[in-house]
Design goal:
about 50 residues, alpha+beta, 2,3-Dihydroxybiphenyl 1,2-Dioxygenase, domain 1, 3-stranded antiparallel β-sheet, two-stranded antiparallel ribbon, 1 helix, globular, Glyas_Bleomycin-R_OHBP_Dase, lyase
Length: about 50
């Protein structure tokens, strides 16, 4: 995702999507970057991570 975590959260809030969790810098395949976690319509947990 190109936006910052704050921008991601704002867009989700505007769309009525509840953020389940937020981590400031989890380590992932591309390095450390902020991430938010939401549920998709089927109940699966989805990670939206800022670009490193």
């Amino acid at each position: 995702v190109e936006e910052s975590v704050e921008e991601i959260e704002a867009e989700l809030a505007d769309a009525g999507v509840e953020v389940e969790n937020r981590l400031d810098s989890p380590l992932g395949a591309t390095g450390e970057a902020g991430a938010v976690y939401v549920r998709d319509p089927f109940g699966y947990r989805v990670e939206l991570k800022a670009r490193v």
